[in-house]
Amino acid sequence: xxxxxxxxxxxxxxxxxxxxxxxxxxxxxxxxxxxxxxxxxxxxxxxxxxxxxxxxxxxxxxxxxxxxxxxxxxxxxxxxxxxxxxxxxxxxxxxxxxxxxxxxxxxxxxxxxxxxxxxxxxxxxxxxxxxxxxxxxxxxxxxxxxxxxxxxxxxxxxxxxxxxxxxxxxxxxxxxxxxxxxxxxxxxxxxxxxxxxxxxxxxxxxxxxxxxxxxxxxxxxxxxxxxxxxxxxxxxxxxxxxxxxxxxxxxxxxxxxxxxxxxxxxxxxxxxxxxxxxxxxxxxxxxxxxxxxxxxxxxxxxxxxxxxxxxxxxxxxxxxxxxxxxxxxxxxxxxxxxxxxxxxxxxxxxx
Amino acid sequence: xxxxxxxxxxxxxxxxxxxxxxxxxxxxxxxxxxxxxxxxxxxxxxxxxxxxxxxxxxxxxxxxxxxxxxxxxxxxxxxxxxxxxxxxxxxxxxxxxxxxxxxxxxxxxxxxxxxxxxxxxxxxxxxxxxxxxxxxxxxxxxxxxxxxxxxxxxxxxxxxxxxxxxxxxxxxxxxxxxxxxxxxxxxxxxxxxxxxxxxxxxxxxxxxxxxxxxxxxxxxxxxxxxxxxxxxxxxxxxxxxxxxxxxxxxxxxxxxxxxxxxxxxxxxxxxxxxxxxxxxxxxxxxxxxxxxxxxxxxxxxxxxxxxxxxxxxxxxxxxxxxxxxxxxx
Lengths: 351, 329
Hints:
heterodimer, A: 351 residues, mainly alpha, MetI-like fold, 3-stranded antiparallel β-sheet, 13 helices, globular, B: 329 residues, alpha/beta, Rossmann fold, 14 strands, 26% strand
């Protein structure tokens, strides 16, 4: 298992490298640049700006400098400055020496911020929202799927799967404003916009205080975001469980006289979880790195908007930062999924 | 007949399918005496397994349904029991072993856990007692180093070993009746012989009553005292094992025996086959279900389905024709 994980980590690095090269190439291939404006800037100004951000250099050189800034740790005696060019994600002081790592560069659009600022300020909020949404998705989807499978072709089943169809088909862009209006404006249960948690965060992303001040902001968007995923989980759980309870070993369990509850919980559920776990990986990565529409609907200062605006703004460092972050989350989540398989099914062994 | 351990009368089981209702078991009646071994033979899809699954309430429902019949066990009708009541019979009083040991054990649970489940449930043992008993059971069915294997998963056992585990599991609560549903079909021949020897040994040691479902007449000759031949959801012949082999009376039984190689016959014989395939019955036939494939069929066979009648003491046949003479009875 240990060797397998090391090997996988190596593959992951290769994947991230390829993703970074493709992203870098593609974003520079789009016409226009970070300083293109409707009312064009004077050529002189653009020239100076391009020089300032090294955009006049050959592409390969730009990529190498980017990779260098991100990957190679800087070990220096000079303490961190407030310069936007000098903002590292990891800053560790050992004696008088600074160990500084991962400089994702400044944002071209928000001149006073860096990509690391986005990671520090906006990512935790998206992660909180995404985690909540995922918890809600599982908490609703799993029981709904099990219920529908056990009561197959009854009202329960039709009701559960009906809700599930609704969940898949009604997008957040519809659900969001309805929630805001009904629960935020009309009933005044929750504040219609905003987010409750403030830095500092525990472990870099957990809200330091989990109280009503957090949940009154979090519940509405989390439910709106999680509902669609819960529907997917419910349908998958139902299909998988229905397949499992037709297996011979379930008949064996019945022949032993076990209670139906034990048969489902012990004998069927674990076997039917593999497809469900498979989609949880990508789902987690997608939810946690930020969701553009949900965050927009509920006025949440998360990371989602940067995925979209960075591209229209040709904000090269932000494009690279967000996409690499997503890629890292995705490959790590998939690794965790693969490791989970081994715990679910003893026949799967990695060596 | 009060001396019957299990008395099944007029059992009918149907399956709803998109193509119509399949009549899988059509009025099957049989009795099982304590201590005897009853062989049930017939081609695939003739209703052998469904009959036994129906008795235990293990028919997947929907689509299956037991529509008629009684199955008395110690004066109680198994078919009228509630789910909770029959649950206490299954595994504890009547145990069943299935055809394919590769898929009949849960792949994600340890063999130990699967073995102790019925012990803890039906006998109220603690996990520790049950573990100790599980080791004894595995040793009883001849699994070496049983103690070390409780924590293993089914995929770490070979097919034959898994079937031994299945057998030990079903015998764990010393059931009155042991139903074996083609337990050797999925195994290779040498392992088959080992399993049959094992069951025979256990039967003699424990005095079990056995129903052995198979399509292998050779296995039944070895093991059973009485044999029931099924076709199209009907019992078409039933006799003590020697009587059936020396004096088969139904054309279908004749065909089955004719397709079996025999070492004891002198001279060269060509193995015969029965033309055609067994029917899937969407309707209860008015004629004998075997008549489309029967060499002996006379006009009467196409008009009326023959009842299962005694020809001699203990030998019942459902056929209008006396196969010895070829004439209608």
